[in-house]
Write a structure and sequence with these properties.
Number of domains: 1
Radius of gyration: 12 Å
Strand order of the largest sheet: 2-1-5-3-4
CATH architecture: Roll
Shape: globular
CATH topology: Ubiquitin-like (UB roll)
CATH class: Alpha Beta
Largest sheet: 5 strands, mixed
Strand content: 25-35%
Number of strands: 5
Amino acid sequence: MAIQVLIPTPLQKFTSNAASVDLDATSVDELLQALEGHFPGILARLCDENGKLRRFLNVYVNSEDIRFLDNQTTPLKDGDEVSIVPAVAGG
């Protein structure tokens, strides 16, 4: 089950500068674990010590914010696109 993950520029140092990677997963949680398995150290940048996504990150499955779906238990299917987007603040 191939899921395309779009990696933001600040995290591309973990993926050998790849802007996207293909991984197998059936949920967002499983995808996060797969990312860590392939790219050690990336999970600490994405999740807190309790395994919850950090507040400043937005995750989208096929352009839908997972906060309006099932959060980290959001199911994934073959061909889905997951975007990891750091929140931007400023004034």
